[in-house]
Design a protein that fits this description.
76 residues, mainly alpha, 2 domains, 2 helices
């Protein structure tokens, strides 16, 4: 790639290619780190706890919606 340089200067296209390659590498590394974190037991437990809390909150919201809907039905 360096042999493509002209007068000792790197062309804009070459610089862009190098930068994009670096970005792809860093994105790939981040993805691998996320996968590793998800595999850890502590992370898995915290994800499960979060999901459980979200399910309970959703159930609570559904109950509140039903309670609000029933009085309105009686008025009609």
């Amino acid at each position: 790639m360096i042999s493509e340089c002209y007068d000792g200067k790197i062309s804009g296209k070459l610089v862009t290619e190098v930068r994009m390659t670096e970005k792809r590498k860093s994105i790939r590394l981040l993805a691998e780190e996320l996968k590793a974190i998800r595999r850890r037991p502590i992370a898995r437990e915290s994800i499960d706890k979060f999901n459980k809390i979200m399910e309970e909150e959703e159930k609570f919201n559904n109950l509140n919606e039903k309670k609000i809907a029933r009085p309105l039905e009686k008025e009609l």
